[in-house]
């Protein structure tokens, strides 16, 4: 591909998200609280899974602990830089910093997609193959699956970063976004980006569509199995183990599909949609998994020494 004979950029300026100036302090404090609560909430989940002997040996909660690590990472990559948009002065990001931000965001984001798929498969085995569950899914296998998700995510992130930054960037250097993401950065390239856009669409489309299809297939089978359970209490307990996962998958996949799997536009809604997978979802995940997952709530009570009620003890004996 022919390169433009011009000086390469050494830094980018992130314009951030549009906002009224009178809300600058409020938005800075808001996203600071979001970031702090995200880190604390996910750290609490991670510690609970690690400390509680009834959780850390179970594949479902190994996946949940890894999800917390990913959420903490995505939030750290994006939110502090977003907060700088609400401070005075122009604070450019170095070219290498932009490369790193794009790589780690797509590395962790794609790993999260793979992890959601593994979590759905785990729930499928637990509900549809309960007698063979401990044979088909154990701690060793779940560790291997998580390792595979990390490796695949790393390859995906590297591919996207290499394809994006192999192009020449000679100016302007203003990224009309709040972080270095593929669509916004490609607009600044000094050459035709059609091939990059097509490869990005196909690559991300394959990852998202494949993972979502497998998750959907798992939950079709899960729903059929739950409906065959005769007791109301049994159906309720089965749905309670899946409700949290369905909620976080929906909150994550819908904005991602809106951003990457549609014709190229420069809509203000892109930034609003991107706040979900980068800031809102990592913040909500600990709340969803503690409010909707009875086992996590019981583990938290055991960890801090709060006695469980009689009904909670009964649930624990029946479910574990």
UniProtKB/TrEMBL annotation:
Keywords: Cell membrane, G-protein coupled receptor, Membrane, Olfaction, Receptor, Sensory transduction, Transducer, Transmembrane, Transmembrane helix. Residues 41-289 form the G-protein coupled receptors family 1 profile domain. It is found in: Cell membrane. It is a multi-pass membrane protein. GO terms for cellular component: plasma membrane. The chain crosses the membrane at residues 26-49, 61-83, 103-121, 141-163, 204-227, 239-261, 273-291. It comes from the Eukaryota. Putative odorant or sperm cell receptor. This is Olfactory receptor 10g3-like. It comes from Lynx pardinus.
């Amino acid at each position: 591909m022919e390169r433009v004979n011009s000086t390469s950029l050494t830094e980018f300026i992130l314009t951030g998200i549009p906002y009224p100036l009178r809300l600058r302090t409020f938005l800075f404090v808001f996203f600071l609280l979001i970031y702090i609560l995200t880190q604390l909430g996910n750290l609490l989940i991670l510690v609970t899974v690690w400390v509680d002997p009834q959780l850390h040996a179970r594949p479902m909660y190994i996946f949940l602990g890894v999800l917390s690590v990913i959420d903490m990472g995505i939030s750290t990559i994006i939110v502090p830089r977003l907060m700088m948009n609400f401070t005075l002065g122009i604070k450019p990001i170095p070219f290498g910093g932009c490369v790193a931000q794009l790589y780690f965001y797509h590395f962790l984001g794609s790993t999260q997609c793979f992890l959601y798929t593994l979590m759905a498969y785990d729930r499928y085995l637990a509900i549809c193959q309960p007698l063979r569950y401990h044979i088909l899914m154990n701690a060793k296998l779940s560790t291997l699956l998580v390792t595979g998700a990390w490796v695949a995510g790393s390859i995906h992130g590297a591919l996207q970063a290499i394809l994006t930054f192999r192009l020449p960037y000679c100016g302007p250097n203003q990224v009309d976004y709040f972080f270095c993401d593929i669509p916004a950065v490609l607009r600044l390239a000094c050459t035709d980006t059609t091939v990059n856009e097509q490869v990005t669409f196909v690559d991300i489309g394959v990852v998202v569509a494949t993972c979502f299809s497998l998750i959907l297939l798992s939950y079709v089978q899960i729903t059929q199995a739950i409906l065959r359970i005769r007791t109301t209490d049994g159906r309720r307990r089965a749905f309670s183990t899946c409700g949290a996962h369905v909620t976080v998958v929906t909150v994550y996949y819908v904005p991602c599909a809106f951003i990457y799997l549609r014709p190229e536009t420069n809509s203000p809604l892109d930034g609003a949609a991107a706040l979900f997978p980068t800031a809102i979802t990592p913040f909500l995940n600990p709340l969803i998994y503690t409010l909707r997952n009875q086992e996590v709530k019981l583990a938290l009570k055991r960890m801090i020494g709060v006695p469980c009620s009689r009904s909670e003890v009964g649930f624990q004996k029946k479910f574990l």
